[in-house]
Amino acid sequence: MNKISKTTQQWLVQLQLFAHDGYHTLKNMLLSVTVLALLTTQVHAAADLNVNTPAVAGVKASMQSRHQLLLPHYQSGAVGLTADGFVAVKDAGLVPLSQRSAFAALVKDENADRAKLYQGIAAANGHPEWEGEIQRTFAQRWIDRAQAGWLVQRDGQWVRK
Fold it and tell me: Has this prediction a pTM greater than 0.85?
């Protein structure tokens, strides 16, 4: 009764071969995915964040000229830098009522230019799909470079730097 039929033995050998081959196939697939992930990471690391096409240069110039207008609002705490790379109104009450409309337009224009900057840099690098990563990189850079006393968003909370 302990004897296994020849057919069963052949079936078991085939099952062992399949399991062995399946293991190696799965291992090779996982290795391929890992290599692809590493190559993708290296490609992202190679993005030129200082690329200067005419479109990007125009956006940067617009942002630079607006910075002097935003500076007192950063210092007062009327606006802060968000974790996702934009400017947010934190306390409009710090801006005189007669200036609030212009203040709101200033913030809106700044955020529109920031979105154009992220998109433009990704496009200039030939990888529009990198826009999100470029945006996250700039967001962190701007928070890191914020002056003492400015409001910045960290871990979902607003703090004074």
Answer: no
